[in-house]
């Protein structure tokens, strides 16, 4: 941009904006890689799953709104032992994925169910689903599902679900996928 003496102020702003967006993407990638590589234990405490869900939705709903996707919160107040910020991060990753693969003007529901000795949180979307042969792979690092299933041009780096799984495991939880 600096080498082009004929560039307008508007063009310079576009270049800087694009550069800042790329820096943000690289920062996120770096942070996720460092977190995946970390052997550090997460401090665990009592967390209200509803509070964590509300925080995650507050962060992710603007993205859903750009695609006219409704996010419905059916998470009830239930206590779990975990790391608040990691639970929020896992929910953000799951919601981000659901938004990427959901058709415009659809609905995503986040709900909680009390199990015998655990709380199950579900993110249910109306996307195309995950074929059975890909379901085991979606939690692998750098794995990216078939791009044709999504209308998004930037699918990311294939680290989100791997990170979500790692964070869940660090809190003695687990992730699974159920797709029709």
Plain-language structure description:
- The strands form two sheets. Strands 2-4-5 form a three-stranded mixed beta sheet, with helices on one face. Strands 1-3 form a two-stranded antiparallel ribbon.
- It is of the alpha+beta class.
- It is 44% helix and 15% strand.
- Residues 147-153 have low confidence and may be disordered.
- It contains five helices and five strands.
- Helix 1 (9-37) runs parallel beside helix 5 (160-170), helix 2 (49-66) packs parallel to helix 3 (84-101) and helix 3 runs antiparallel to helix 5.
Low-confidence stretches: 147-153
Number of helices: 5
Helix content estimate:
40-55%
Taking strands numbered 1, 2, ... along the chain, how are they ordered across the largest sheet?
2-4-5
Which labels suit this protein?
180 residues, alpha+beta, 3-stranded mixed β-sheet, two-stranded antiparallel sheet, 5 helices, 15% strand
């Amino acid at each position: 941009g600096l080498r082009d003496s004929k560039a307008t102020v508007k063009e310079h702003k576009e270049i800087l904006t694009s550069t800042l967006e790329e820096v943000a993407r690289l920062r996120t990638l770096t942070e996720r890689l460092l977190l995946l590589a970390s052997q550090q234990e997460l401090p665990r405490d009592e967390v209200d799953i509803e509070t964590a869900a509300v925080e995650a939705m507050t962060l992710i709903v603007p993205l859903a709104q750009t695609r006219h996707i409704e996010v419905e919160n059916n998470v009830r107040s239930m206590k779990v032992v975990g790391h608040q910020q990691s639970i929020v991060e896992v929910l953000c990753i799951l919601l981000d994925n659901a938004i990427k693969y959901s058709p415009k003007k659809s609905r995503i529901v986040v709900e909680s169910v009390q199990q015998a000795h655990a709380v199950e949180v579900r993110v249910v979307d109306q996307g195309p689903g995950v074929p059975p042969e890909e379901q085991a792979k979606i939690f692998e690092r750098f794995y990216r599902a078939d791009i044709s299933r999504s209308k998004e041009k930037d699918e990311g780096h294939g680290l989100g679900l791997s990170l979500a799984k790692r964070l869940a495991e660090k809190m003695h939880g687990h992730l699974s996928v159920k797709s029709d």
